[in-house]
Design goal:
The complex is a heterodimer of chains A (115) and B (359). By secondary structure, chain A is α+β, with helices and mostly antiparallel strands. Chain A is 17% helix and 19% strand. In chain A, the strands form 2 sheets. Chain A has a 3-stranded antiparallel sheet with strand order 2-3-5, with no helix packed on it. In chain A, strand 2 (55-58) and strand 3 (63-67) form a beta hairpin. The termini of chain A are far apart. The model of chain A has no long low-confidence stretch (mean pLDDT 83). Chain B is α+β, with helices and mostly antiparallel strands. Chain B is globular and about 70 Å long. The model of chain B has no long low-confidence stretch (mean pLDDT 87). Classes of the chains: A alpha+beta (115), B alpha+beta (359). At the A-B interface, loops of A face helix 1 and helix 4 of B.
Chain lengths: 115, 359
């Protein structure tokens, strides 16, 4: 027992002081979902395949909306995206007390110039 | 003869991680009957199968339980693959076995911690969870999720482990084994643990069989019943021997779980030695039609996933028989005749997972 007491005195805590110290992440950690809206074609495949119904896509208004409270960060949308514009970032989002909606509006489509 | 009183136990109770309600009929301090009632966390996950694509539903089936998540996902995939007649790559089966064993170890360590906590042994609780953190680190490093792995797909797995990673896992195993030896020694020899568990919550061998108990509950009563013995997935190639104890009390069930920690380590070492090279996923086209009944071993016992499909992208029916449901009759049997103070310890020895049970 004395050995244990000494060990614990020297070793320091086994935990980290989150959120003052950042949480441990690995290169493959699923933290949160982001979109690169420039490449998005608003096809709606991510909305169709979201198991949690967290994504809304509006082709007319060119908006992509994510309910971050509902998103389960499974990465299914990332695997279905035909333009590879969705990706998962490693950091976890900070805690929040109310539902967070992220609405991103895409740029206007380039109109074809008349010859 | 003293007056009978009824003491409600749960659904909100300090030792219960999840909500189950028991009406304990007491005579003085002795429980003469326990009447369980469930239905506090029903989420209707099985119904969702009618609204989601069968491939997307993998993520929902994985969220049936927060502890044995990986094995739920793998069993569902196994059932759908069998319906569709898909043969998945051998490497994927080995990877599933490795992750299944890691998730079994993390579940057992969590349970050992909660069990120590139910006896009021806080230090041991923290020790168990400290070791569990090492397991979760491996899971996060290899799959991207600590508790919900999300690597199962219909047709295989979505993430591979390279040779370097497999070697790293293998090199960490001796350290884990040393930790387990220390934990097992405490659970086996400590007087506090012994006085709270030995001879308490007896489940005789015949009764366990008649009540249809599964998992460590029945293995603690002397029956070698383990779905891994049927050799599903990669288990037919791995040298697996079930851990069996014959005493049938709380201590036996606890020691089955500590023993299974070592079995899991052996299985992982075995799997890493024998894992073949090759693909990890095969493309699955078309929709399933037919029905299948997949059976695997979870940390808590045998789980059964039944799927029925009619050639559309949504399945007709998905039914899960979870181990906790099979163990509740055994729990009622164990509680009859025990002391009120032992109720929390006995309830925990079946490793109740109510979230699983009610889905």
């Amino acid at each position: 027992m004395a050995l244990n007491v000494l060990k614990n005195l020297i070793k320091g805590p086994a935990t980290i002081r989150y959120p003052y110290q950042p949480a441990k992440v690995t290169p493959v950690t699923r933290g949160h979902l982001v979109i690169n809206i420039e490449n998005c074609i608003f096809c709606g495949l991510c909305r169709m395949h979201c198991p949690a119904d967290a994504i809304e896509v509006n082709k007319q208004e060119r908006t992509w909306q994510l309910n971050q409270f509902q998103c389960i960060i499974c990465g299914n949308c990332v695997s279905y995206c035909p333009k590879d514009c969705l990706s998962i970032k490693q950091t976890y989002l900070p805690p929040s007390a109310s539902a967070t909606y992220v609405t991103i509006t895409g740029p206007e489509p380039e109109t074809k110039e008349n010859p | 003869m003293s007056k009978k009183i009824i003491v409600p136990f749960g659904p909100q109770h300090p030792v219960l991680p999840e909500p189950i309600h028991l009406d304990l009929v007491l005579e003085d301090e002795r429980v003469i009957e326990a009447i369980p009632s469930i239905g506090y966390v029903h989420r209707g996950l099985e119904k969702l199968v009618e609204k989601r694509d069968y491939k997307d539903y993998v993520f929902i089936s994985e969220r049936i339980c927060g502890i044995c998540s990986f094995i739920h996902g793998a069993t569902y995939c196994q059932a759908v693959e069998q319906v569709m007649g898909v043969e998945i790559p051998r490497r994927a089966e080995f990877l599933r076995a490795i992750w299944s064993e890691y998730s079994r170890m993390h579940s057992h360590l969590l349970w050992l911690g909660c069990f120590a906590d139910s006896m009021g042994y806080e230090n041991l609780f923290m020790d168990c969870w400290k070791v569990r953190e090492k397991i979760l680190d491996v899971l996060e490093r290899t799959t991207g999720g600590r508790v919900i792995q999300g690597v199962n797909r219909v047709g295989g797995v979505s993430r591979d482990m390279d040779k370097e990673e497999l070697n790293r896992i293998k090199s960490e195993i001796p350290g884990l084994r040393a930790d387990y030896v220390e934990l097992t020694r405490i659970f086996d020899e400590d007087l506090t643990v012994q006085s709270r568990t030995k001879g308490i919550g007896m489940l005789p061998k015949d009764t366990a069989w008649e009540l249809g108990a599964v998992g460590p509950t029945i293995r603690g009563s002397g029956h070698a019943v383990d779905a891994r013995m049927t050799g599903y997935g990669a288990y037919d190639e791995l040298d697996f021997k079930p851990v069996v104890r014959t005493e049938g009390d709380c201590h036996a069930r606890c020691m089955v779980r500590t023993g299974e920690l070592f079995t899991s380590l052996d299985l992982i070492e075995n799997a890493i030695d024998r894992i073949p090279e090759g693909d990890i996923i095969v493309p699955v086209k078309g929709n399933p039609s037919g029905e299948y009944y997949a059976q695997t071993e979870q940390p808590r016992g045998e789980v059964i996933h039944y799927v029925k499909a009619n050639g559309k992208k949504n399945l007709l029916r998905h039914r899960v028989r979870t181990p906790t449901l099979a163990n509740v009759p055994a729990l009622v049997q164990m509680l009859a005749g025990c002391e009120l103070a032992d109720v929390p310890v006995i309830v925990l020895t079946i490793d109740p997972c109510i979230g699983c049970m009610e889905r």
